[in-house]
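Note to self: keep these together.
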Amino acid sequence: MGGLIGVMSPKFVVHAGVLLLSARIGMHALPAVLAPSTPITTISADLVRSVGVPPQEVDQVEVARDRAIGIDRSAFRLRQVRVAARTDGASLIIGSDLLESKPVMLDFGRNRLTVVEETDRGLLQGDVLASATRGLTAIPLTASPGGCPSVTGEGASGQRIMMAVVGSSSDLDRRSTRVRVKLGPATLGGQASEAASRCRVDAVLHWEDFGRRRVLIDLPHHELWLSAL
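Structure:
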C-alpha cells in the first residue's frame, strides 16, 4: 500500500459552502473536500499520476496500485477513484466509499476533525466510541432511495421528514424552501433543494445547518451522532 509521510492537520474550515481539510496521498499534501453524498472519491485530472493511474479522460478508473489517503492520523485505503476536471476548488473530494471504513467526528465549534479508528473500538471494547460520543445522541443513518446517507426526523406538524447529509452547499439555490426538523435532542434546518431531488429525500442537510455542534458521521455502523447544541 502506498506509504504516508507525516500527520495531517486535524483542522478544517467551512468556506463557500464546502468543508475543506488537509489530506495526503503518498508524498503529496493536498486540499480536500468532505462530501458524504458523493458515492466515489474524486480526484482532479492533474493529480491522477499520484494514485498510480495514467492521465486520461475517464469517469471512473480502478487504482493501479493500492494507495492510502491520509486524514488526521489515519489512513484510508483508496481502491477506485473518479477523475474530474472540477472538484469544488480542491484536488480531492472524499466520498462515502472512504467514509464507510471509519467513523469521522466533526467538531464545528472548534473546527476540528477526528477519525475514530475501528481497531481501537474493537480493542478497547467501545471505550474510544464511548469517549467520542459522550453527550451525543445516535440517530439511525440509512441510504435514501437516491443512495445518499440520510436521517429521518419529525417536522413542525409531526410528519416524518427524510433528510440527506450532503454537506456541501456550494451549488445551493438560496431561494429553496427551509425545513425545520427535530432529530433527537436537536432541531436542525434543512433545505428542500435540487440536491433533495437527486437524493430522493424531502430535504438536505448542509454543513452550516449543524451550527457549532459536534457530529459523528458513522457510516460503518449506520449512525449519525449529534450534540444538542
